[in-house]
Amino acid sequence: MIKNKLAFIENYSLKTIVLSVFVFFTTFMVIFILYLQFQQENHALNRMSEKVITSKGETVKSMLEHYINVPKQSNAAVATSLKAMDFSDPNDQMPVIKNMLLQTMGQIFSGDKYLSMVALGTKDGHYISVGRNNVTDKEYLILKSRETKEKLNFYNGLSQSEEPRESIANYDVSRRPWFSYVNESKKATWTKAYRDFNSDSGISISYSSPAYDKNNHYIGVISSDLRLSRFSRYLMELTENENNVIFIVNGSNQIIASSKDDFLISDTSFGIADQEGGGLLSVMDSSDPLIKSTVKILQNSPSDVERIESNGSMFFGKVMPVGNNLNLPGWRIVILSAQDDLTGDLRSNRIITIILSFIIFAVGTLIAVKLLTMVTNPILDIARQAPLIARRKWKPQLNSQAQFSEIRVLNSSFMQMSDELEGMFLKLEEQLNIDEETKLMTRRGLQGKLRECYEERSDFTIGLLAIVGLSNFNTITSSLGRRYGKDFVLRFIHDLQTILPAGTWLARDADERFIICYPRIKTQDFCLSEQHKFERFFRGMDTEHDTDGQVYAGNTGFVHDVISPENLNESIMDAHIAFKFARSKGNGYSMLFHSDIRAEEIRNINMLRHLKSALSLNEFFLVFQPIVSLTTRNITGAECLIRWRNAELGMVGPDLFIPLAEDTGFIVPLGAWVIESACAQISEKLSGGEWPNDFKVHINISLIQLMQRDFIHTLFSTLARHNVTPQNISIEITETSMMKETEILTTTIRTIRGMGVSISIDDFGSGFSSLSYLHKLEFDTLKIDKDFVSDVLEDSRNESIVSAVIRLADGFNVPLVAEGVETAEVADKLQAMGCQKAQGYYFARPMPLSEWPDIGKTLP
Predict the structure, then answer these.
(1) CA–CA separation, 288 and 291 (whole Å)
(2) Which residues cross the membrane (predicted)?
């Protein structure tokens, strides 16, 4: 999985990968550093904005407290003067009050233009006030008394002799907000900020407090009006040359003072103001988007500095409450400071920093590219010369670009390695072309020699090719050891070369297999002569050449064709096919390849394809051939035989598919199926009472299956599963299997017999040297090969062999079963010779158990 994920790296060069990693991590580092710097700047900016805005807010707050104290001081001055007077008849005191108010405005607060008016409203409804014109800075009188016939007169100056500029009838002072609350509660208070027609700003606020005479009699209410326009101008001066905005709102979020002159009202007409707060501009209704954007922070009233964006510009904003200390609930100062004013050169410095960072990054990248080029180019030069290894011509010169010591070491190492590889190639080529043990050519060496000959002479050709294989090499090696096997092969090569014509090529293809090439075109007669020569050689009939008593078992396959380097491998394959067919016929046989052999090999391949699926398709079935006592002619046992019926191939004989199954290893699962199926059918016959309890069934077992380490467990677990006793089973092994006797085979047979299963030696007499193995293996039955039995009447030599085997069986005290009995005469002859049992078509053909004759019936 990891390999698949990293496979894409193979598509890129080392330089590209290293440079990409460098650029990636450097870019990441630069961006990360800039990000940290940006975060730190923002943090510092937030702290700085907090300090600057808070400092400015405290300044405004302090100034506002001073500003708000003016009306209180004015009222206190008037109240002190009134406290010294007797107001038994207030109307008589109007001139005195007028002078008192004028003194307050003209002398005590003459330089303070914050105060716009000082007034007294008496409890009997009279009113007198002295105001100051903000433009002319002159005082004027407003009066309601008996003298004005209870009208409220507005004068241009302080003289009542002048015609009033405006007169209002039915003015009721008791209904005015500044008067009514104090008149009832006798407590000082502020009015709401209101639109004042007598103030140039149009916005004022009044402070009212109760008045008493020297007798502590309640007189009325003193009121001082404060011009908020003056504070707005102060805010404008405070924010001059700054992109900042400061404004003050009341509890209803109405703007009562602002540093922006857009909110100043220049109407200077006279009249009675609405002191309920009507007509003031609210923040929500502001046409200024910056002011309007503060609605959210006014609603939440956060204590920290907030960021506000307006028309693409960023501002820091803060709301500071001020009304609680001044007895003006809900009053708040809103301070908006432009981020650019706070950052100053910070942004330009940041841009310079970013530019410098990327310049450094670009320079670093160029340096990295240069260094990587200095590293990778020498490596690439070395890599480009590496293909010369394949042609064994790699002698690169020292690289002048190898400026780094590591590159120089690498280059020198490759130089040294090229020399060592040259020697290794030569040695490896020799090992590949020459067999170390015999000094013969290998198949590769043979191909090389043939190619060289064709390059030297275009008319050169090989006219005959043979595959020679030793059948007894593995047996000798396993019995006597590898060293003896080596000597055996060397002796065989020596003897083989004595029978080959001069100029013949000999090569070793495997431990026990050799290739012979006959140069020049050969006739058909020459081919037949060579076939007969090798047959005599392997059968010990060669009298012309001395083999020093050495016995060689083997076969030969020939190919008669014009053989070139292009078709050499194909010719070897054809010769091997002929060799396999010759080997299947027995020792010493030789065969010349022809098209029928290839067709048969193709049939075997097709058969193998069907064989692999035959078990799963239930194409195999079992038949049983009775084994008869020659004395009583009763059935005493049976041999279990396997059959294969394929939809495409039809009935396939065991002699065809069993060798194929053994060659491919399929014999192991097939043999297990035979044991399983046979035991199931035997169990059915025994449990049904159709067979006696001592009835014995012979099952053929391949040596390959018998050598499996789990064979004993497979056999006896199957017997137990089907309730079949070991005494009902006899395992048949062929005589040729005894020649491959090993410790595992001997142990397996001994264990099986020890647990009650019989051992039968099948096809006895068909092999050779079998007698030498009989004393080593334990067995219970001998079965003589049918080739001897069928000709026992006509061939006296076969009769002698059968007689000898009968005596041999008697000597081992085991029964002999004659196979292939097809006539009554042969059956009678065998009985007369002393053979105990027989089987064959004369008695019964192999058949499924469902077609079996009655076991109690006497056969002919």
Answers:
(1) 5
(2) 12-38, 351-372
B/e letters for 551-588, b = 16+ CB within 10 Å, e = fewer, are: ebbbbbbbbbbebebeebeebbebbbbbbbbbbeeebb
- Measured at the alpha carbon of residue 689, what is the angle toward residues 685 and 695, in degrees to the nearest 5? 65
Show the tokens assigned to 579: 């060799």
SS3 (DSSP) at 525? helix
β-bridge mates for residue 320, sequence order: 333
3-state secondary structure of 317: strand
For 161, how many CA atoms within 13 A lie in the half-sphere containing its CB? Answer: 0
CATH 3.30.70.3190 fits 456-593, yes or no: no
Q: Does domain 14-344 have CATH number 3.30.450.20?
A: yes
Q: Give the count of beta carbons closer than 10 Å to the beta carbon of residue 364.
A: 14
813, 591 in Cβ contact below 8 A? no
Tokens of 828: 């009678």
Q: What is the DSSP string of 494-513?
A: HHHHHHSPTT-EEEEEETTE
Nearest to 517 by CA among 529, 501, 533: 501
The two tokens of residue 676 are 């399983």
Question: What gap in Å lies between CA 109 and CA 103, rounded to an integer?
Answer: 9
Residue 230 contacts residue 67 (beta carbons within 8 Å)? yes
What is the DSSP code string of 42-99?
Answer: HHHHHHHHHHHHHHHHHHHHHHHHHHHHHHHHHHHHHHHHHHTS--SSGGGGHHHHHH
CA distances from 553 to 470, 471, 539, 583, 586 (A): 6, 5, 7, 10, 9
In sequence order, which residues have a C-beta less than 8 Å from that of residue 724 and are 6 or more positions away? Answer: 679, 682, 683, 686
Encode 14-48 in three state secondary structure. Answer: HHHHHHHHHHHHHHHHHHHHHHHHHHHHHHHHHHH
How far is residue 391's CA from residue 503's CA, in Å, rounded to a whole number?
A: 31
Residue with tokens 């299963």: 757
Q: What are phi and psi of 612, to 5 degrees?
A: -65, -25
CA 671: distance to chain centroid? 45
- How far, in Å, CA of 695 to CA of 479, rounded? 38
Quickly list H helices, 551-591.
Answer: 568-585
Integer Rg of the chain from CA:
64
Angle of helix 595-614 versus helix 568-585 axis, rounded to 10: 70
Contact predicate 102/111, CB 8 Å: no
Please write the tens of the pLDDT for every residue from 754-779: 999 999 998 886 654 456 566 677 89
Strands (E), 89-217: 115-122, 127-132, 139-144, 152-154, 166-168, 189-190, 194-195, 203-212
- For β-strands 462-470 and 554-563, DSSP reports them as antiparallel
Cα torsion at 399, 402, 403, 409 (round to 10°)?
-120
The token pair at 1 is 């999985």
pTM comes to 0.47
Residue 683 structure tokens: 């169990």
Torsional sign, CA 163, 168, 173, 174: positive
pLDDT < 70: residue spans in the chain: 1-15, 44-45, 89-92, 110-113, 196-202, 262-279, 302-303, 342-348, 350, 382-383, 385-404, 406, 410, 414, 541-549, 735-742, 765-775
Q: Where are the domains positioned within the chain?
A: 14-344, 456-593, 607-851
Q: What stretch of H or E contains 249? A: strand 244-249
Encode 153-180: b = buried (16+ Cβ within 10 Å), e = exposed: bbbeebebeeebeeeeeebebeebbbbb
Burial category of 237 from C-beta neighbours within 10 Å (exposed 0-12, middle 13-18, buried 19 and up): exposed
Per the DSSP assignment, residues forming a β-bridge with 301 are none
The 10s digit of each residue's pLDDT in 557-566 is: 999 999 989 9
Name the CATH superfamily housing domain 607-851: EAL domain (3.20.20.450)
